[in-house]
Design goal:
The protein contains two helices and five strands. By secondary structure, it is an alpha+beta fold. A hairpin with a 4-residue loop joins strand 2 and strand 3.
Length: 90
């Protein structure tokens, strides 16, 4: 299976869940994250806090984080609110 890549043809298609600053809500960084987006190729992009350095050594034996990957913390609220917009099928 080919690894998805973000390229010059890639584009953010639609937000999954509400805007994190909807109704004047404040986020930790005040810059619009955390967020979940569907890309125009059907893949997803997640904006969150990079916790790779602190979390990589604690990954279970069946999980790994490659050199081109990051472990991202996404608040529970963000993912739960995005759930209704996530497709049920591949």
């Amino acid at each position: 299976m080919k690894t998805p890549k973000f390229s010059h043809e890639s584009a953010f298609l639609s937000r999954l869940g509400p805007d994190p600053h909807e109704n004047g809500a404040q986020t930790i960084a005040l810059r619009g994250c955390p967020d979940v987006w569907m890309l125009n190729d059907g893949n997803f992009a997640v904006i969150g806090i990079d916790i790779t350095d602190a979390a990589a050594a604690k990954l279970p034996p069946t999980a790994g984080c490659g050199p081109d990957e990051r472990i991202v913390l996404v608040p529970r609220k963000t993912l739960v609110l995005a759930k209704a917009d996530i497709p049920d099928r591949v």
